[in-house]
Amino acid sequence: MTDTEVKAASVFAEPRRLTSGANRALTAWQTTVCSMLQESWQALLGSDLTLRLVKSDSTTAIKAVNNLADPGYAARLRIGPSSFPSVFAFSSRMVQVLVNDMLGTPSEEWPEVRELSPVETSMAELLFGEITRSISQAWPEVEPLECELESIISRPMRSRVYGPDEPLVRTRIALQTAMGQEEAVWLLPQAGLAEIGIAETHEDESPPAPAPQLRTLAEQLPVQLVVELGSTSMRLSELNRLKTGDYLPLDQAVFQPLEVSIDGRLQWLGHPCRLGVRQGFQIIASKKD
């Protein structure tokens, strides 16, 4: 096999990436999971921490598992009506830091890597149990998504939860504590995501009607709207002379409507107004009209 054939084979062996719609829905769900998990963990710990979604990508199981922290610990989960497997993995030292906080003995530096004691394992089970609750409650349907903690895995890099070539979605989550920042990894099989309505669509096929769960997730995404009052230009010498109380003449005439844009694209026209004690905006024309 030539080098070109090898490269082509490796490209076709890579799992398909989620479509932009599915990826947005997944991001919305996982962002809510992080928010709920941060809140519940802070109630258990003696110090502050933050969880922040970093990035999701598609990969094979063997690549994802081989890149997990080692040594480490992971929650082996069962999600959805079919109880598909999922893995939520952390480094050993991060788990030790969290457990120490729960026991009232916060770490002053990163602890040495060692096995958890029976008491510490019980604390880890409590922490990982909150992961299942957050995953379940963050689901944007009337009924929570089924999720249960099957077991705690020691050395998840050596686990055999998935077949080597199974396509997964790998999500990296930044976990910030007083000791510093590390990343947790959440693995989800693409087939399992499809079962709960977050599925990929082949570009060469007609896309199916969006699942209700996917549509509900997408509708929860925040969108930033920008109302532009106007703009102006001036020389640097004039800019340096500006002080409190000065007026800036804008290029927008008083009688002209203001523009509302999303991602730099004009969507609406309107006029500023007052809504109680807050500034408001009244739409007088829409791009859809």
Automatic annotation (TrEMBL):
Membrane topology type? Peripheral membrane protein
Q: Which GO terms describe its cellular component?
A: bacterial-type flagellum basal body; plasma membrane
Cross-referenced Gene3D superfamilies, in alphabetical order? CheC-like, SpoA-like
The record's subcellular locations are: Bacterial flagellum basal body; Cell membrane
Asked if the Swiss-Prot or TrEMBL record annotates the protein with the keyword Transcription, the reply is no
Alphabetized UniProt keyword annotations: Bacterial flagellum, Cell membrane, Cell projection, Chemotaxis, Cilium, Flagellar rotation, Flagellum, Membrane
GO biological-process terms attached to the record: bacterial-type flagellum-dependent swarming motility; positive chemotaxis
Q: Which residues form the Flagellar motor switch protein FliN-like C-terminal domain?
A: 219-284
InterPro entries annotated for this entry? CheC-like_sf, Flag_FliM, FliN-like_C, FliN_T3SS_HrcQb, SpoA-like_sf
Q: Which domain of life is it from?
A: Bacteria
What GO molecular functions are on record for this protein?
cytoskeletal motor activity
The family annotation for this protein states:
Belongs to the FliN/MopA/SpaO family.
Q: What does this protein do?
A: FliM is one of three proteins (FliG, FliN, FliM) that forms the rotor-mounted switch complex (C ring), located at the base of the basal body. This complex interacts with the CheY and CheZ chemotaxis proteins, in addition to contacting components of the motor that determine the direction of flagellar rotation.
Q: What is this protein called?
A: Flagellar motor switch protein FliM
